[in-house]
Every structure is written in C-alpha cells, then in structure tokens.
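Postdoc handover notes: sequence design on the structure in folder B. Input tokens:
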C-alpha cells in the first residue's frame, strides 16, 4: 500500500470521517488511523462462506463460466467497516471468535491486502509478525532471519549486526542452521517474533505468535512490547488468551463478523466478550 510510504498528514478532522463514529483524535499522538475499512477475499469455486451475503459476480461471470467451465467466484467480506485511531505508546489487543476478521485487519494495516474501500494511514513503519508471509520452512533459520529482516526494511549490514541478538532472543541456538520445518511450534514462533522485533518498528503487530511461547519467552516478549511502546511505538496483539491480552494490553478491540463491537479498557471488553462466548455456548447447547 503506497499510503505507508507516503508522508501522512495527521491533521485529521473527525468531521471529515463521514458516517464513521466520531473518533477521539489527538494528532500529535496518532500512529494509525483506520477509517471505514472494508477488506474482502475472492474465493474461487466456493459456496457461501464468511460474513453476510456473498456477492455473485453477475451475469457476465455466469456467461463466462458457462463457456469455459470456470468455477464461481465469491467474495468473502472479512472486514466490514472498521474505524479506529491508535496512539503512540498503546498496546492494543484484538479479540474475537475464529474467522471474525482479526488477522485480516492486521494484514490490511500492514499493507499486505488492499482494501476494497476505506483507508489506512500509518505514521512510520508497520511490521506484521507477518514476516510469516515471507519465511520459508525449507530454509534454515539463518536464511530466514536474512529474508525476514530484509523484508522488514533492514539493510544487509543491519541484519548482520543484529543477527546474534535475534538468535539469542529466539533461544534457538544451533537450530539456527537447520531448516525451520525441523523447529517445534514454539521455536518457530520465537524466531518469527525475534525477526519481527529486530526492526524496532513503529507499529508491531503480533498475531497469535505468543500463544505457543513458554512463560519465560512470554516475559521477554512483554519486555520487547514495552520497549517498543516506550520508544513511542504502537503494538497490536491478536490472541485467544484473554489472560495474555489483559496482562499485556492497554486497550482492547473486539471484532465480530468483520465489525468492531467494542473498543475500550481491557477488563471491560474482555468481560463482555467472555459473557458473549458463554451465552453463545449455552445457546448452542440448548439447540442440540
Ligand atoms: N486467504 C483467504 N481466502 C479466503 N478467505 C479467507 C482468507 N483468509 C481468511 N478468510 C476468511 O475471512 C474471514 C476472516 O478471517 P480471519 O483469518 O481474518 O479471521 P480471524 O479472526 O483471524 O480468525 P482466527 O481466530 O481463526 O485466526 C473468515 O471468514 C475466513 O474464512
Ligand atoms: Mg487469525
């Protein structure tokens, strides 16, 4: 997304944000502005999936399919009109049931998926733990450190300088020379985290990566997140562990079916979410 590279003017007037809910915007502290963001996937040959009515791509598509026997194309609306502003120094948890759109939101903020509509403005350089996207299981940890860190915008020399720190932080020792496919899930998660954190990004986005880490690594991760926040960065953390979210975040967004349901204080949002999940379970049980 070109917006990320551009100098962004953060003099945002909430009045200009149309129908979106009014935002508490303090332009000096703003690190990210997501305005009425819609993100979709195009799925080939699928029946209805995702949230809301799937879009039929129309008569032309049907005609083309009839001729060429091509599969149907469906649109999965994964993020459906999300608006929020994030400040420097915040650690923002993102919670929601499976498939609610959390990972998609992070991918869109990182510029990995173009939005259908709406905008994402980022002050500085966002790094999704989504170096995941560029890492290759068949290559060694060492090669992946190089690839991942280059993808995050470090120079070759910077990667060389930080290489030992990354290995030490990830606690993978000699495994650094083995292919990543030989790593345990915890080791893989630690290495991904260490690579992502090596760039000291302005916005660090972590998707589930901590869930496989052990307690010691969790503590280190928290320290790294705090360091990024103290250097005026912003951290996003997607996790299904409400305990992790509550211990690490200053604010929580709850997403459901691609929409923002609640945005606020961690205890309050996690409490409402827990209640919602319990109600849903009870409802599902009563349907049996
Ligand atoms: N690559 C993809 N192609 C097509 N549809 C996708 C793709 N990735 C996600 N989706 C769909 O988009 C919706 C949102 O998915 P997303 O992965 O963002 O949810 P999530 O909240 O991260 O879920 P989880 O908690 O399981 O990680 C779901 O309906 C999912 O099926
Ligand atoms: Mg996800």
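Designed sequence:
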């Amino acid at each position: 997304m070109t917006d990320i590279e551009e100098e962004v003017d953060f003099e945002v007037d909430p009045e200009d944000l149309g129908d979106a809910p009014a935002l508490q915007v303090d332009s000096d502290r703003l690190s990210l502005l997501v305005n009425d963001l819609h993100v979709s996937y195009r799925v080939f040959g699928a029946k209805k999936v995702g949230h809301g009515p799937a879009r039929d791509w129309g008569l032309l598509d049907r005609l083309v399919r009839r001729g060429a026997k091509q599969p149907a194309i469906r649109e999965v609306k994964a993020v459906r009109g999300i608006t929020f502003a994030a400040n420097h120094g915040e650690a923002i948890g993102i919670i929601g049931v499976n498939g609610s759109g959390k990972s998609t939101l992070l991918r869109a903020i990182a510029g990995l998926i173009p939005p259908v509509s709406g905008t994402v403005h980022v002050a500085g350089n966002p790094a999704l733990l989504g170096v995941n996207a560029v890492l290759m299981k068949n290559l060694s940890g060492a090669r992946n450190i190089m690839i991942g860190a280059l993808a995050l915008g470090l120079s070759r020399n910077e990667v060389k300088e930080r290489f030992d720190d990354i290995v030490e932080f990830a606690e993978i020792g000699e495994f650094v020379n083995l292919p990543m496919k030989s790593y345990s899930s915890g080791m893989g998660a630690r290495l991904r985290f260490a690579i992502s954190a090596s760039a000291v990004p302005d916005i660090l986005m972590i998707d589930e990566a901590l869930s496989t880490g052990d307690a010691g690594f969790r503590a280190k991760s928290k320290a790294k997140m705090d360091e990024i926040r103290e250097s005026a960065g912003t951290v996003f953390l997607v996790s299904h562990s409400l305990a992790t979210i509550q211990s690490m975040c200053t604010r929580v967004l709850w997403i459901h079916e691609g929409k923002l349901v609640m945005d606020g204080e961690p205890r309050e949002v996690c409490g409402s979410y827990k209640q919602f999940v319990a109600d849903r379970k009870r409802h599902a049980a009563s349907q049996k």
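Context for whoever picks this up: Residues 9-124+202-287 form a domain with the Rossmann fold fold (CATH 3.40.50.300). Don't rerun without checking with the PI first.
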